[in-house]
Amino acid sequence: MMFTLISGVHDAILGSGRFPLFEARQAGLILNTLAVSTGATCIALATGVPLSVFMDRTDMPGRDLFRIIYLLPVLVPPVIQTVSWTRIASSLTGVFPIDIYSVGGCAVILGMCYFPFVTLMTLSGLRSVDRDIEEVALLWHGGFRVCTRITLPVALPHIASGAILVFMLCAVNFTVPDILRVRVYPVEIFVQYSAFYNGYGALLQSLPLVSLLILLLWGMDRMMQGRAFVQAGMGRATGPVYSLGGMRWPVCCLCASVFVMAVVLPLAELVRTTGSFHVFRDVVVHSIPETIYTVMVAFCGTVLSIATALPAAYLADRLKNVTAAYAIGVLNMLPLTIPATAFGLSLVEVWNQSWLHSVVCGSSVIVILGYAGRFLPYAFAAMASGMKQISPDAEEVASLVSPSHARIFKRIVLPLLAPGMFAGFVMVFILSLGELGTTLLVLPPGRETVILKIYNLMHYGAHAQVAALSLFLLLIIGLFFVFALLSYRYIWRGH
């Protein structure tokens, strides 16, 4: 991508005599992108942090259930979330004057999509707090004071890193702003390429955003200071439990309302719009080829992403050369800073060569590369967190018995890293099933994924078919998630 950006700067200045970054509309793009990302981040923080504290540090009823379902909003792709809420907003127009086609509407939907990442990071931070310090403080102060003065400040690096992650995810998101007609950088990149066939100009549009997000990525790395993104044993609370007293059930209802907004209401609207089972059945029957193709490319992209992240995570944690280890970590996290449309366009510019066209650009290989590269940071972060929880002493002891590094890696490291690999696989596969921004630009002719079919049908006004196909995709994602959850509990907890 950097090569195509440099070529684009040369072409823009010497070829057209102007530099697109200095055009007047840049100010509007910057303001809209910052407003959407900041608003969504604030919503994610206001939702994710209290939810984490209630689940991990209070006697809220049903908190064990919440620890299982808090990731459910991630299973709903942003396309489906947006389609559902546009229908809900239109049906409420006569009662509540809601303008969902706005920066505010975009921020709310993105906040609902991504707040589980703040919850996950905050939970990890809470598990890193020394339990003894909290228990001593509770002898002199109440639970609220201990939580706000000791627990949350210690977990602040994880909370802030979760906020930065959500900001970056919102800033590079194409789907929600495009459907809601909000002009942000990812949408402008797509417009420049699809409407004006200006590939270099489209990539140039991403320079300010990419530069900002790289700075934020550096800030996140500085705040974490080598801490694991996710701690081991995330399923159970480890700290003291604060009593909510008479607020136990009101707090439980408040937390439940979050999932009603993010999951239940969108699903109910999709069911209502579908209308009948016959519509659902017909859509499923006519979408079998797209479903098979979607699962195939998502699976292959996920395998490639895991295969790339595995050695990278190992080297980033075990290399004695600190500079080289840091560089490996940065390179694997860098795709987080690239808009989805810019990522797809850069793949096209790099691989669209005459001698490679039929092998890469004209086939599904480029889609697999797009998914693998786009979601590489998730696989890397999951395995890097796993590596930080594996003591190097285990390998040093094993080296006394066997001098073969390959054998030690296979017999010692891989089994201990397996939960992290599994978590990364699940996350990348689910995100690949719902990926739209990169797919729009790299999908070869004659092919269509389920999410792209939903996007196309939506523009034709086929609301019942869109809702039915969305339900079908959610069913696939839900079944996979349940299977993954049961497999994890059976393999790593039961045995």
Describe the secondary-structure layout:
Blueprint: H1 2-15, H2 25-57, H3 63-69, H4 72-75, H5 78-91, H6 103-127, H7 131-138, H8 143-171, H9 175-179, H10 185-196, H11 199-205, H12 207-224, H13 248-274, H14 277-286, H15 288-318, H16 322-333, H17 340-351, H18 357-361, H19 365-374, H20 376-388, H21 392-401, H22 405-433, H23 437-442, H24 450-459, H25 463-494
CATH homologous superfamily descriptor of the largest domain: MetI-like
Q: Report the radius of gyration as a whole number of Å.
A: 23 Å
What's the order of the H and E elements? HHHHHHHHHHHHHHHHHHHHHHHHH
Whole-number mean pLDDT: 85
State the CATH architecture of the largest domain: Orthogonal Bundle
Strand content: under 5%
* Helical residues, percent: over 70%
Structural class assignment: mainly alpha
How many strands?
0
CATH class of the largest domain: Mainly Alpha
